[in-house]
Design brief:
The chain is 50% helix and 11% strand. The protein is an alpha/beta fold. It has two domains: 8-181, NAD(P)-binding Rossmann-like Domain (Rossmann fold, 3-Layer(aba) Sandwich); 190-343, N-(1-d-carboxylethyl)-l-norvaline Dehydrogenase, domain 2. Strands 3-2-1-4-5-6-7-8 form an eight-stranded mixed beta sheet, with helices on both faces.
């Protein structure tokens, strides 16, 4: 007889955490760990997370709770809390995480100050060995996946066996998963594309057109790759689901909170005002300064990220930011080719 108790626990009841809990619950029981008892009770009574996922029913196998004891007996913990709360949340829950459980981070960002990636924050805060932690990233707009629309993602882990276990557990016909051992690259893609999506939203808000936005997205991807190469990531990761795939989704869809943030900035609204009105977290706003600092340490230029910072925190108009980007001196598009080609053994002798 199959044990009916949940063996998967999802930490975080935002749109993405709830979506992944729904995905799991369509195949097996799952615990959704909420921040407060009030939130857990509301989800259990209404059987919806209407604010985050309007119109989506929670499957019967999904049980919402605020009690960390719900993780007892779980063999997979999925972490889906905002990056700004990740360290405190993992420190609080560390003692409740089973010692043998696989841990999957779906958080996208860089920690201010430490510049750590999200798997690194989890490892430090909860004293979990890095090889036990995988990262999932890709073009994953939560509402579409919760509604059963097709999507793909990549699972990155140092240990290929861990990535395979995650894929076996979460992959569905409508949610196709691939694996990658480049955890660094996958996490940098997930963090940096949110910054580019803010710029893309601003371009849409100003009516720049598809040509202008396509150029911005392409140069944004180049900017992401420059930082990734300097940090030691595989350049080809940026051509995959976590890179160009997620750039396309977040820069092109109004379901993206980062894109929406850019649109609101283009209306002349201030970040402080927009932050309170978003239906969730626009991670790019909390990542951009850490990305710029990391780029400075590695000697990498990130002009789009710097203008996103200026629009968010320096009071510079979005119009002026985009005009200044367009006014930059032209350069060889493949100027960075040799650097990344050398990393994958393609540079000529």
């Amino acid at each position: 007889m199959t044990d009916p108790s949940p063996r998967v626990a999802v930490v975080g009841s935002g749109a993405w955490g709830t979506t992944l809990a729904i995905l799991v619950a369509r195949a097996e029981p799952v615990s959704l760990l909420c921040q407060s008892p009030e939130t857990a009770e509301r989800l259990m009574v209404e059987r919806r997370n209407e604010r985050r996922l309007p119109g989506v029913e929670l499957p019967p196998a999904l049980q919402a709770t605020a009690d960390p004891a719900a993780m007892e007996g779980a063999d997979m913990i999925i972490v889906a809390v905002p990056s700004t709360h990740l360290r405190a949340t993992m420190a609080r829950l560390a003692s409740a995480i089973p010692a043998a459980a696989d841990v999957l981070s779906v958080v996208k960002g860089l920690e201010p100050g430490t510049l750590l990636r999200m798997t690194e924050v989890i490892a430090h805060a909860a004293a979990i060995a890095p090889e036990r932690i995988a990262a999932l990233s890709g073009p994953n707009l939560a509402l579409e996946i919760a509604r059963g629309l097709p999507a793909s993602a990549v699972v990155a882990a140092e240990d290929p066996a861990l990535a395979d276990r995650v894929v076996a557990r979460l992959s569905r016909r409508e949610f196709r998963l691939y694996t990658n051992t480049d955890v660094l690259g996958v996490e940098l893609c997930g963090a940096l594309k949110n910054v580019i999506a803010i710029a893309a939203g601003a371009a849409d808000g100003l009516g720049f057109g598809d040509n202008g936005k396509a150029g911005l997205m392409t140069r944004g991807l180049a900017e992401m790759m420059r930082l990734g190469i300097a940090a030691g990531a595989n350049p080809l990761t940026f051509a995959g689901l976590a890179g160009i795939g997620d750039v396309i989704a977040t820069c092109g869809s109004r379901l993206s909170r980062n894109h929406r943030l850019g649109e609101e900035l283009a209306k002349g609204r201030a970040w402080a005002e927009i932050e309170a009105s978003l239906p969730g977290v626009a991670e790019g706003a909390y990542t951009v300064d850490a990305a710029i600092e990391l780029a400075g340490r590695l000697g990498v230029e990130m002009p789009i990220a710097r203008e996103v910072h200026n629009a968010l925190f320096e009071g510079k108009s979005v119009q002026r930011c985009l005009v200044d980007l367009l006014s930059r001196e032209s350069k060889d598009e493949l100027a960075d080719f040799r650097q990344w080609a050398e990393r994958i053994g393609l540079a000529p002798e």
